[in-house]
Design brief:
With 368 residues, the chain is an alpha+beta fold. The protein has one domain. The chain is 24% helix and 24% strand. The strands form three sheets. Strands 5, 6, 7, 8, 9, 10, 13, 14 and 15 form a nine-stranded mixed beta sheet that branches. The radius of gyration is 20 Å and the shape is globular. The mean pLDDT is 95. The chain binds fructose -6-phosphate and magnesium ion (2 copies).
């Protein structure tokens, strides 16, 4: 029987503002997923948060897109919204964009990353959670993990990963996808995923070798909230699942890309570029200018489709230097105020006040 890890997340209310998640929502998640476990829907779970997003991490044997599992998560978010309204949390039900549940939470507002795989003798899995940014924020780190020999020594040294990986890239504007091989198509791949607001890495697969070719080794949530809602309702705040070791990048090779606080879009009002700061779950709360954008990482050693205890991987002085650098970059970017490249370029501002400003000025533009 194969094992599935599902991470389903939503912002159902912030505390305060869009800062973090109230303990009562975590409590609701724990209670309801506990009931789901008793009913045999899932085998194990961990409820946590990153910024204002409630994160449900679940292990089971039911495969991806399973109705029972999705419906359980949807019920947690619905109940969470109720609790959030009662205690007047901010933006209660923010990501609950649709009313009626029809068997799958995709396109309903929440973000989802799921992987189904044959459990190895030792199966380390890392769950990454980001707040105040978009799915494309994963492009650079995931590329580095699986395709950059300057990051992943194993690509050069380990015969079992020397042949490279296959990337599934989605065009999230046109809803199309393409499979690309590295190292053969590395430059073509970079030509796409460098445009991170449009082309996003959805999954990574192993090539023929130690692991089954059809079982993903990484998966990123690629929901676009503003497309689902038809208007801007906040950034997607994506999650990712990455399996590691023996035939895959090592734990440290998977974490290494986050030692560089790369610029991602999101931050204040989803309209600014800023550094992605790796933090512990305890520090996964957005403060300065509603940010800076954050990423937390929990490591699990999967055992017979159970999660066991998580290890908070960025809760480590080894990432202090990165955090300091991120603060420096945040300060530098902030000094630009409303100017690009701190503020996002025009194309990304279309769902903000910009169209109204243009409308107001219509007729006042003269030939220059
Ligand atoms: C960004 C985010 C926040 C809000 C900002 C304004 O993803 O969630 O930066 O955009 O706090 O929020 P409202 O419009 O709710 O006052
Ligand atoms: Mg929010
Ligand atoms: Mg959020």
């Amino acid at each position: 029987m194969k094992t599935t890890v599902s991470v389903i997340k939503a912002d159902v209310g912030g505390w305060p503002g869009h800062g973090t998640v109230h303990p009562k929502l975590i409590e609701t998640g724990n209670k309801m997923l506990g009931e789901g476990k008793n009913k045999g829907i899932i085998n194990d779970f961990h409820v946590t948060h990153c910024g204002d997003d409630l994160e449900l991490i679940m292990a089971h044997n039911k495969g991806v897109d399973n109705k029972e599992v999705h419906s359980l998560a949807w019920d947690v978010f619905k109940e969470g919204t109720k609790v959030a309204k009662e205690i007047k949390l901010y933006g209660a039900g923010q990501d609950m964009l649709k009313e009626a549940f029809s068997g799958n939470v995709r396109g309903m507002g929440p973000g989802i990353a799921e992987v189904e795989f044959t459990e190895r003798t030792g199966e380390p899995v890392i769950v990454f959670m980001m707040d105040k940014t978009e799915p494309g924020a994963f492009n650079l780190p995931v590329y580095r993990m699986f395709a950059d020999p300057f990051n992943t020594a194993g690509l050069v040294i380990d015969p079992s990963i020397h042949s490279g990986f296959v990337f599934e890239v989605w065009d999230i504007m046109e809803h199309k996808k393409v499979m690309m091989k590295t190292p053969e198509e590395m430059y073509d791949l970079l030509a796409l995923i460098g445009a991170k607001e449009r082309y996003v890495i959805k999954r990574v697969y192993p090539k023929k070798g130690k692991l089954p070719e059809n079982e993903p080794v990484a998966c990123v949530s690629t929901e676009k909230l503003f497309q689902t809602a038809g208007k801007y309702v906040g950034k997607d705040d994506p999650v990712g699942i990455v399996r590691c070791q023996s035939g895959l990048p090592a734990l440290g090779e998977v974490l290494e890309p986050f030692a560089f606080p790369h610029l991602v879009s999101g931050w204040m009002r989803g309209s600014h570029n800023g550094p992605l700061m790796p933090v512990s779950v305890k520090n996964a709360k957005c403060t300065r200018f509603d940010g800076p954008p954050r990423v937390a990482a929990l490591g699990f050693q999967i055992c017979n489709a159970t999660l066991g205890e998580p290890v908070d991987l960025f809760d480590d002085p080894a990432f202090d230097y990165t955090r300091e650098k991120a603060e420096y970059i945040a300060e530098y970017m902030r000094r630009h105020g409303p100017f690009e490249p701190h503020r996002l370029p025009l194309a990304d501002m279309e769902y903000t006040t910009l169209p109204d400003v243009m409308k107001k000025l219509e007729g006042r533009f003269e030939k220059a």
